[in-house]
Structures are given as C-alpha cells and as structure tokens.
Amino acid sequence: xxxxxxxxxxxxxxxxxxxxxxxxxxxxxxxxxxxxxxxxxxxxxxxxxxxxxxxxxxxxxxxxxxxxxxxxxxxxxxxxxxxxxxxxxxxxxxxxxxxxxxxxxxxxxxxxxxxxxxxxxxxxxxxxxxxxxxxxxxxxxxxxxxxxxxxxxxxxxxxxxxxxxxxxxxxxx
Length: 173
Prior knowledge:
Blueprint: H1 3-54, H2 60-63, E1 68-73, E2 82-87, H3 94-97, E3 98-109, E4 112-123, H4 125-158, H5 160-172
Antiparallel strand pairs: 1-4, 2-3, 3-4
Helix pairs in contact: 1-4
C-alpha cells in the first residue's frame, strides 16, 4: 500500500473513531446549556414580576400575552422557593419536537405568599442531537472522499520521479 494512502486511511480511521465521542460531548453540553439558560431567564422574569408586585407597579397589561401566571396562595412559604418542571403539559405535538419547562417561584410580599409561574417551550434535545449527527456524518463523508481522491492524485504525482528512477535503474542492469 502506498505511503500516502496509509496516511489517508489513518486519518480517516482516527476521524471516524473520535467523531462519535465529540458528538456525545457536544450533545450533553448543548442540552445542559439550553435548559440552564431557559431556567435562568424564567427565574429572572419571576423575580422581576415579584419586584413589581412588591413596589405595587404591576399592571395587568404587563403580563398580558406573556407566559406567566400570578396567584396568591393560602399556604406557608415553601422551603424550596423555586421549582422547575419539565414535561409536555398534555399537548400532543410538543412531545415529538420539544417540551415545556415551567419555573414556579414563591415570594412572600406584604405577608402574603405569591406563586409566580413562567413557562417556555424549548426544542427537544434529541432533535438537536439528530441535527448534529447528520451534520457531522456528512462532513466525515466529504472529508473521506476528499482525502481518498487527493491521496490518489498526490501519490501519483509525488512518486513519479521515484518510479522513473527505479525504471532507469532496472533498465541499466
């Protein structure tokens, strides 16, 4: 087997072996980042609404059209003031393409306990994973084809003087 072809095969083998590991690492990083970002954003939104309630500046039009619910509850303040729920919320199409994250926060304002819940739909991480996998596999295929074609072309051009020298030596003897 020609030297360039051996190098090409080693490159392709290493790329093919490392790519699934890189895809799995990326998948977990993306999934965690999406969830943590959504939870932080919704917790911040709940805190802003609680501050408006505390300052008595909350108007009904502030929450109109926003994915937020405010209600006074007759219960003691829970130990865990922020709760996160992941689920489909009973919707049919959301299970396949995404899911809903609900952040519920409890605040004690003027002696009353308020339950502020916000929610947002987020993409299902399996959809992201499939997109990443398709992209990586298509890139591996293109790299493999390019390496094979370039290796064959360069091996012919690079070893041409060497082959001519060997032929000349064979003709000499």
